[in-house]
Amino acid sequence: MADRRPVVGLTPDVGETLARPARPALPQYELKQAYVEAVLSAGGLPVVLPYSDDEDAALQAVALCDAVVVTGGAFDIPPEAYGAHAHRMIGRLKPGRTRFEQRVLRAALEARKPVLGVCGGMQLLAVEVGGTLWQDIREQVPGAADHEQKIDPRQPGHSARVVSGTQLARIVGVDIVQVSSTHHQAVRDAGPAVVSAIAPDGVIEAIELPDRFALGVQWHPELMPGAEHLALYRALVDAARAPVR
Ligand code: MN
């Protein structure tokens, strides 16, 4: 038999089925196939993590995983999570999803499992370690570009400079990455996390914890062509293979 693939837990979104006459919409998990394909291509075995109000269920689910990806979505993290009041441009919240992803992320960090936070997942990683967010880039960051690109998210929206000496720099192996940009919020203060990529307008595009594999990227590497993007998933799976540090 082939080598065991490291198990990579993915956090799904919650949507609902299409309502029809006499058939009400039912909640359903949603997950872009690109996450699954990226993990498979990187040599991992993707599994969908279940929502539960039971803290212990999250712990046990994460315990079955060798690594975790906190995925992004079209929603904002409640500002109370980082001690802020809601700005008027705050977007849609999904408090149930945020609670679920906080449980998963906390359990993964506690167990020192490798973590990749994508888009909103990066923002949650920043908040989890004590950082803060810009609630709306256009309103709050003077001179910033529009980070909600109007083109196919599989195409780059802008570039980002990779900070030398970071784990990200080692992984992608280039100084400049072309990244997709589908976010209206951004990390404001990364807290104890290291900033590892920055857009030309100064917006933080990647962070990492210095002492372990816990990386966040503001773009969607699973959607982007280019070896430097799949390299992030490969690095996650490789870290998942190593014994827990
Ligand atoms: Mn961006």
Any key phrases for this structure?
7 helices, two-stranded antiparallel ribbon, 245 residues, 9-stranded mixed beta sheet, Rossmann fold, alpha/beta
Tell me what you see in this structure.
- The chain has 245 residues and is of the alpha/beta class.
- It has one domain: Rossmann fold (3-Layer(aba) Sandwich), CATH 3.40.50.880.
- It is 28% helix and 22% strand.
- The protein has a 9-stranded mixed beta sheet, with helices on both faces. A two-stranded antiparallel sheet has the order 2-3. It has a two-stranded antiparallel ribbon with strand order 7-10.
- The longest helix has 16 residues, at 95-110.
- It is globular, with a radius of gyration of 17 Å.
- The mean pLDDT is 95.
- The structure holds manganese (II) ion.
- Residues 147, 158, 181, 183, 199, 203, 205, 218 line the site of manganese (II) ion (MN).
- Manganese (II) ion (MN) is lined by residues 147, 158, 181, 183, 199, 203, 205, 218.
In short:
The chain has a single domain, classed as Rossmann fold. Helices cover 28% and strands 22% of the residues. The chain has helices at 33-41, 55-63, 95-110, 120-128, 137-140, 167-172, 227-241; strands spanning 7-10, 13-16, 27-30, 45-48, 67-70, 115-118, 132-134, 158-162, 176-179, 186-189, 194-198, 204-208, 214-217.
